[in-house]
Design goal:
The complex is a heterodimer. Chain A is of the alpha+beta class. Chain A has eight helices and four strands, in the order αββαββαααααα. Chain A has helices at about 5, 40-45, 60-65, 70-80, 95-100, 105-120, 125-130, 135-145, and strands spanning about 15-20, 25-30, 45-50, 55-60. Chain A has a four-stranded antiparallel beta sheet with strand order 2-1-3-4. Chain B has helices spanning about 10-20, 60-75, 80-85, 90-100, 110-125, 140-145, 160-170, 195-200, 225-230, 270, 280-295, 295-315, 335-345, 375-390, and strands at about 30-35, 35-40, 45, 105-110, 130-135, 150-155, 175-180, 205-210, 235-240, 250-255, 325-330, 350, 350-355, 365-370. In chain B, the strands form three sheets. Chain B has a seven-stranded mixed beta sheet, sandwiched between helices. In chain B, α5 runs parallel beside α6. Residues about 400-408 of chain B have low confidence and may be disordered. The chains are: A alpha+beta, B alpha/beta. The interface of A and B includes residues 103, 108, 109 and 124 of A.
């Protein structure tokens, strides 16, 4: 049985087979490349099945983090939408302070709203290290899981 | 990348600000005539942006005390108190401020900025949690950059927002340190201190209150919001400045903590900068005596605040939420604020202009600070001039006079 801990992104081992459901389609991956390469796939998956030594473990992303990735990203995008520039969509790779018309104070105010929405606190020194939407979502999921 | 490339956004904003022909951040007072008048660009100007709340900068007794101190002890101390020693007057000033608050200890700093910077960053250390109001002064934010503690902001003047953040800490180890201000410098609003103190007590948090803009203005004895809210004993550390009501420069912190004096060898902004010169110490001591002896200055300040606030509100200006020695006038955007400021200058009135990123929630403001020695005529003149400019710039609409209620 694969422990839930081992399923966390970045800890997926070589040789493990991953099945994930994204947009209601099923995808299988045998981990042959560096697990980091699968990170973006894993982030968007609603559900994952991991097989190792014939054992299968299925879990909802929501159970890994306490808060689904989709919900976290949606909430972040809702707050960032007013600062969007041109036609460029806001994605996980969006660099918040650079790609959007948001100043540092407004970023801190947005973080305060997210804190209250998810009932977590994100210390200012942690915020200072966050650059992309994905990194912000990672932080929120991590803190939600610890709650 | 050039050294200044990272400031490109700010440079652009600064260029906008200067399009009116004047740079509001580099105004030169050619001659200061009194607490309320100065010569700028060869013209006599009415000053409404000085934080000189009691008008003590020209108080004859304070001026005489400073002059006498220079004759007796020279122009400066040329070093820090831990290296060059304290003058008797430094110690006397500390005792007098401690007595004024009824606290056991006081430490004097060279500026109010340094008091906040050093004190906050030292009191909250590694493993502690520092909780600050979102609209905190730059000196508090800068202390947050220096501290090893974890820093979390709560919503401005919102005790429930602070409570949520204290609750989330649960039983994690570390001291909780909460920083509040008596009166906030941009909109002149004061903290709901009693409610904040209740929350802090519930979670065992230490409280630091910065009375920079409320010293003299609030409380029966002018001690600030801690006094008017009746929570002097519940505030563990009270910080303040000599540069506003007391008309000079310098900062202080008072406390009853028995180990307070350890701060003299731990707070770097106290240890590694030159101490206040004798003239400043002397004028501050005298100004403190004036504050105690003349409560009518406080009465007059609030009467003037009411005149300006109610006068502007009646004309339809959107103001800060309550009466305060700072009257912040909301304007729709940065360029209108700059244009308004420039028009005021052309009309012979100097106010402060505050635009993002220096303001909370991205608002653009004209910031008036009221002085106890402003005359009724001066205040009425300000209202008249502002109303004229407001109409000209389309900020005021005569058909829809807005009603803005005052809390005080």
């Amino acid at each position: 049985m694969v422990s839930r801990e081992a399923l966390a992104i970045g800890r997926v081992k070589y040789g493990v087979t991953i099945c994930h459901f994204t947009r209601n389609r099923c995808f299988w991956h045998k981990v042959t490349a560096h697990p980091r390469a699968l990170e973006s796939v894993l982030r968007t998956a609603h559900q994952m099945i991991v097989e190792t030594d014939g054992m299968t473990d299925t879990l909802e992303r929501a159970r890994v983090s306490g808060q689904s990735r989709g919900e976290v990203i949606r909430e972040i995008c809702r707050h960032l939408a007013p600062f969007q520039t041109g036609e460029r969509p806001i994605t996980g790779d969006t660099v918040i302070a650079k790609d959007l018309t948001i100043d540092s104070l407004a970023i801190m105010d947005m973080v305060m709203e997210l804190e209250d929405h998810f009932d977590i606190s994100i210390p200012m020194n942690v915020v200072a290290e966050i650059h992309t939407v994905d990194q912000l979502a990672d932080t929120i999921q991590k803190l939600c899981a610890r709650r | 990348m050039g050294l200044f490339d990272r400031h490109a956004g700010l440079l652009e904003a600064y260029r906008d600000v200067r399009t009116t022909g004047y740079d509001p951040f580099q105004i030169r007072m050619e001659r200061v005539l009194s607490p309320t008048e100065a010569i700028i660009n060869g013209r006599k100007m009415l000053l409404v942006g000085t934080n000189n709340y009691f008008g003590l900068t020209f108080d004859p007794s304070c001026m005489e005390a400073a002059i006498e101190a220079i004759r007796a002890e020279g122009t400066g101390t040329t070093g820090s108190r831990i290296a060059n020693g304290s003058y008797s007057e430094h110690v006397a000033l500390e005792q007098e401020i401690a007595e004024f608050y009824g606290k056991k200890h006081c430490m004097v700093f060279t500026t109010g900025y340094q008091a906040n910077l050093g004190l906050i960053s030292t009191l909250a250390g590694e493993g502690d949690q520092l909780l600050i109001d979102a609209d905190s002064h730059a000196s508090i934010y800068d202390a947050c950059k220096m501290t090893q503690a974890e820093v979390v902001r709560f919503k401005h003047n919102d005790p429930s927002s602070l409570e949520a953040r204290l609750r989330r800490l649960g039983d994690r180890p570390g001291n909780r340190v909460v920083v509040l201000e008596g009166i906030y410098s941009m909109l002149g609003d004061s903290a709901p201190l009693r409610e904040f103190i209740e929350v802090c007590k519930k979670y065992g948090a230490y409280v630091i209150v910065d009375e920079a803009h409320s010293l003299g203005a609030l409380g029966d004895n002018g001690r600030g919001l801690c006094e008017s809210a009746g929570v002097l004993d519940d505030c563990h550390f009270i910080v303040g400045t000599f540069s506003k009501t007391l008309g000079a420069i310098g900062g202080y912190c008072v406390s009853n903590d028995p180990d307070f004096d350890i701060l003299r060898v731990t707070v770097r902004s106290y240890m590694f900068t030159a101490s206040l010169p004798p003239s400043i110490v002397a004028s501050v001591r005298q100004a403190l005596k004036v504050v105690k002896a003349r409560p009518e200055l406080r009465t007059q300040l609030w009467a003037n605040v009411a005149t300006l606030y109610e006068g502007l509100a009646a004309k339809g200006f959107k103001l800060g939420p309550e009466h305060g020695p700072v009257v912040g006038v909301h304007l729709p955007d940065r360029m209108t604020a700059i244009g308004f400021w420039r028009a005021m200058l052309d009309a012979g009135i100097y106010v402060n202009v505050a635009v993002p990123p220096a303001t909370p929630n991205g608002v653009s403001l004209l910031r008036c600070s009221v002085c106890a020695v402003h005359t009724k005529e001066q205040l009425e003149h300000i209202i008249e001039v502002m109303t004229g400019i407001g109409r000209q710039l389309g900020v005021l609409d005569d058909r829809t006079l807005r009603v803005v209620g005052g809390a005080r």
